[in-house]
Design brief:
single chain; alpha/beta; Rossmann fold; UDP-N-acetylmuramoyl-L-alanine:D-glutamate ligase; Protein-Tyrosine Phosphatase, Chain A; 3 domains; seven-stranded mixed sheet; six-stranded mixed sheet; 24% strand; globular; cell wall biogenesis/degradation; Mur-like_cat_sf; cell cycle; nucleotide-binding
Length: 449
């Protein structure tokens, strides 16, 4: 079957393309922005990519068009599909029908940490010899691909609350029907499709409604929004993590790189790994709870976590030039920015730390998070904010509220000059964006040479 995917370079759609190819389909796709790491991964799989949405790519007609949620009415390819009556479906629906049917799905949902936690969980099951399938919104370094079918009933999926398609406004995760579900955390996000936090809570409750009574729901004790979701009705056993929960940790190092795991008050062992930050400790705890549900004893899960290598673009060290270390990070919400910088600060001590932040997500562009930004960067020594041309609010006014030195730049060249004038051997530079950021990482490394 020839499947053509509109919006193929999104992390979800690109991963779905890999699975379709593995099932033996002829897969092609197009996107407005074709850029790594997804474009590289797809080309390596032999998937033909087209830049842009010219309807000519749909002639001759494919057997099925999978339409990504970034596509909207008025897009020339979408209009062509509708006018010609071509068969079409959303990505989550295709996945549910052709990959997840009849499998033991382990879903990881939440505002933050989905990609990292689903990567951890897939790796723990792999380490235990369970050869899981997975679909992850990033490239886990333990696997080097973002998706595979796997050889057993187990399938780990990053379960996103974003909508499914222009014709299906339910959250993607409603399609997945998990047996094991991690609800990591829940804050207001996706201001382009949700009016407020209660609207997101309702979608999370739609997910809870689909989990069987023989399944398991895992959530931290520290998230009032998730507590409200569970109180709307839950027909599934629940395990909790964190203070007062069944799963707890005892930090052995402040930066989160070493901690003891306790289940129902009994020590299960110690995780020692390269990760930092309290958020990753919380992700690990949820992972161990989910893995135990499918038969992985905690001690084996702990051994796997100690060999976990994170995900590309999650505090990934991309260069070290003249003693200056450059990291690439996906953080694009104040909470994620704060926890990431906190973890790095605890690891590097008093070393100089420069944060470069691009407010690129739809919620950021709408200004939904601007009030939380000044507080999110307190662990940096200085911050460079990038103001893209289409930002609809005053980034300079937000930067002025920061308690650490902050400047706004509207060009990559300006950012590079600033870093060159400030960075010295021993400085750590974190570049935070949920996009390609115009290749800033490579350009900065080159300029520092």
């Amino acid at each position: 079957m020839h499947i053509h995917i509109l919006g193929i370079c999104g992390t979800f759609m690109g991963s779905m393309a890999v699975l379709a190819k593995e099932l033996g389909h002829h897969v092609t796709g197009s996107d407005a922005n074709v850029y790594p790491p997804m474009s590289t991964q797809l080309e390596a799989q032999g998937i033909e990519l087209t830049q842009g949405y010219d309807p000519a790519q749909l002639d001759p007609a494919p057997d099925l068009v999978v339409i990504g949620n970034a596509m909207s009415r008025g897009n020339p390819a979408v209009e062509y599909v509708l006018n010609k009556g071509l068969p079409y479906v959303s990505g989550p629906q295709w996945l549910a029908d052709h990959v997840l049917q009849g499998r033991w799905v382990l879903a990881v949902a939440g505002t933050h940490g989905k990609t990292t936690t689903s990567s951890m969980l897939a790796w723990v099951l792999e380490h235990a010899g369970m050869s899981p399938g997975f679909l992850i919104g990033g490239v886990p370094q333990n696997f080097s691909v973002s998706a595979r079918l796997g050889g057993t009933p187990f399938f780990v999926i990053e379960a996103d609350e974003y909508d499914s398609a222009f014709f299906d406004k339910r959250s993607k995760f409603v399609h997945y029907r998990p047996r094991t579900a991690i609800l990591n955390n829940l804050e207001f996000d996706h201001a382009d499709i949700f009016p407020d936090l209660p609207a997101i809570e309702r979608q999370f409750h739609h997910l809870v409604r689909t989990i069987p009574s023989e399944g398991l729901v895992i959530h931290p004790t520290t998230e009032p929004a998730l507590q409200r979701v569970i109180e709307m009705g839950c027909w599934t056993p629940v395990q909790t993590t964190g203070a007062g929960g069944q799963w707890q940790v005892k930090l052995l190092k402040d930066d989160g790189s070493q901690f003891e795991v306790l289940f129902e008050g009994v020590s299960q062992g110690v995780v020692e790994w390269d990760m930092t930050g309290q958020h990753n400790v919380a992700n690990a705890l949820a992972t161990l709870a989910a893995a135990r549900h499918v038969g992985v004893v905690p001690s084996m899960g702990i051994a796997a976590l100690s060999a976990f290598k994170s995900v590309k673009r999650r505090m990934e060290k991309v260069a070290e030039v003249r003693g200056i270390t450059i990291y690439d990070d996906f953080a694009h919400h104040p909470t994620a920015i704060a926890t990431t910088l906190d973890g790095l600060r605890k690891r590097i001590g008093d070393a100089p730390l420069i944060a470069i932040i691009e407010p690129r997500s739809n919620s950021m562009k709408l200004g939904a998070h601007r009030d939380g930004l000044p507080e999110s960067v307190v662990d940096a020594d200085q911050v460079i904010w990038y103001a893209p041309a289409n930002l609809g609010w005053d980034l300079g006014a937000t930067a002025a509220l920061c308690t650490v030195p902050s400047i706004v730049s509207d060009s990559l060249e300006g950012i590079i000059e600033r870093v060159k004038s400030q960075a010295q051997p021993g400085t750590h530079v974190v570049i935070m964006s949920n996009g390609g950021f115009g290749g800033l990482h490579g350009k900065l490394a080159e300029a520092l040479k």
